[in-house]
TrEMBL record:
One of its GO terms (molecular function) is RNA polymerase II cis-regulatory region sequence-specific DNA binding. This is Transcription factor CBF/NF-Y/archaeal histone domain-containing protein. Keywords: Transcription, Transcription regulation. Residues 9-72 form the Transcription factor CBF/NF-Y/archaeal histone domain. The keyword DNA-binding does not apply. GO terms for cellular component: CCAAT-binding factor complex. Pfam families: CBFD_NFYB_HMF. Belongs to the NFYB/HAP3 subunit family. It comes from Prunus armeniaca (Apricot). CDD domains: HFD_NFYB. The keyword Ubl conjugation does not apply.
């Protein structure tokens, strides 16, 4: 029996990230965490599949951080790619996303015969290195969709 949570990002991590971004007194329902978990997982799969296709066309077997940045740009998420290039270490994220994608392609459970580092998300930063307000961040994100 396949657990429907297999292949999704850990819900505890998703909830923790949501709490870090939202105002301190905000309440987050279980359903909201589940929807965000599904959306974030789908987004990572979407970007990773694009990066994997590029690697396949170039006869490479390993997706790296540069491939993830390229995929973000190719899919119209230029601001995410630029933020990533500006200082975030994509090796861990790229390796984790590639491992999840490759494991699913091979019919494996995540972690089964693969060693993957923990996935980490970071907040976007403005050009001056400060974090945007929730309203500014919402505007940044909605302009990229």
């Amino acid at each position: 029996m396949v657990d429907e949570q297999d292949g999704l990002l850990p819900i505890a991590n998703v909830g923790r990230i949501m709490k870090q971004i939202l105002p301190q007194r905000a309440k987050i329902s279980k359903e909201a965490k589940q929807r965000m978990q599904e959306c974030a997982t789908e987004f990572l799969s979407f970007v990773t599949a694009e990066a994997s296709d590029k690697c396949h066309k170039e006869n490479r077997k390993t997706v790296n951080g540069d491939d993830i940045c390229w995929a973000l740009s190719a899919l119209g998420f230029d601001n995410y790619a630029q933020a990533t290039i500006r200082g975030q270490d994509m090796n861990d994220i790229g390796d984790r996303a590639a491992s999840i994608y490759m494991a699913s392609e091979q019919g494996l459970q995540v972690g089964e015969q693969t060693q993957t580092p923990d996935l980490e998300f970071r907040m976007l930063e403005k050009g001056d290195g400060t974090k945007p307000s929730v309203d500014q961040e919402h505007n940044l994100l909605s302009n990229n969709v």
